[in-house]
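Support case: user asked for a sample of complex input and structure output to validate their parser. Sending the pair below.
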Amino acid sequence: MWQKLYKMSEKRPLVLVTNDDGITAPGVRSLIRMMNKIGDVVVVAPDSPQSGMGHAITVNNVLYCNPITIDEGPQIEYNCSGTPADCVKMAINEILNRKPDLCVSGINHGANSSINVIYSGTMSAAVEAGIEGVPAIGFSLLDYNYHADFKQAEDYVRDITLSALKEGIPEGVVLNVNIPKLKKAAIKGVKICRQANGYWREDFDKRKSPFGQEYYWLSGEFINQDKGEDTDVWALDNGYISVVPVQFDMTAHHMIQKLNSWEL
Amino acid sequence: MWQKLYKMSEKRPLVLVTNDDGITAPGVRSLIRMMNKIGDVVVVAPDSPQSGMGHAITVNNVLYCNPITIDEGPQIEYNCSGTPADCVKMAINEILNRKPDLCVSGINHGANSSINVIYSGTMSAAVEAGIEGVPAIGFSLLDYNYHADFKQAEDYVRDITLSALKEGIPEGVVLNVNIPKLKKAAIKGVKICRQANGYWREDFDKRKSPFGQEYYWLSGEFINQDKGEDTDVWALDNGYISVVPVQFDMTAHHMIQKLNSWEL
């Protein structure tokens, strides 16, 4: 297998594929098929769904990571017991013999626009790649259906990936791409956006177990407080694909001067 | 208990306390004792260690959250089966009868400077509070020892908390406070900083189980690529407490113009 990988890597870009819905999810299978046309593909993805895992990493438990064959390839695949961020760490630091030219994560079954970027395993995988110096893109389709129609998005995913490979994503930035649930012909194009200012208003669903213990399901409603027409939520609501450049320097630089006026 | 809480809330600030090391960890017990002097304290913290959980939330499982008495108070406490971010959501949306005036998270047993802000459950709890419109501070002590000497940090934690209550933390920002492992007298003061540009170079420790299966421990070395004297890592290395204003708008605004030049 390693000889195959070395041989593969000579000419075409080496593309690492991961996701957060698990290695068998239709979204990542679609992404793998697309990436096979662009480069030499290695998949390191979670062996189970990891939605909402944010940037969790596994520090108090062990990790399993084994080769797996799911279809006839030609990609090489590993399924991993960890989180999406673990998968990327494992791929870059343990499995691959060189840094990939690109990491793509997804295609997520559901939106990762606005504040969801922070809860998203899909985006955390992309951010982890970015932290480790690998250009990265997270892709999400606004359709939570397991059998969503990823075909409609394929040409856009390909074009954005090729542009990223051609232009280069600058260090310190990864791309968060969200795709509306529309037929290809109905998608109006691609908009570069900022993250809309929104949050989830939680509405915990309280229940009682058969044994009398109270428990909760976390559920809620997304609230968009942002009327800007330069946001990802606006773009998606208006039939565009949104591309948000995401950074992992979380410093609020504009606040440093203000804080220096505090008596500390 | 609710009557007590209502009564408590009439005059003093309502302070939500959480952490990621679990509700019985010495770091959070120290923080609770300090906050009892400042306001009326409600604790909603994980029932088990949640280090490295990043901004994970529990979407595929149920949550338990029950009142608990650990010491003689006067704080009110709940232990929760979820992640630090879950605890904050639960507190704000289910347990508290009004929005807290402040959320403090920690004191973490170990550093959350530089890129660790993104892996940190401690900081994710603070960020979650910020997202929900609650001023928030995460505190971390650079000592991984379970019986670390949190007393040395107490005056600084109190002063930073009182300043935040007096000055007000602007919306969209939370504070990441790291404290060096030094005697109080040796701490040189407080520095407002930016997040140092660093990452973890992983070194997976590969082993074989008694049943012949290969598994890994995630371990690595922190690499600071940033020589700036305005960073949190520099401040901590030089005997200062670091305070980084952290934002959860992750948009790389400076990249939007550049991306608009791509042919998409």
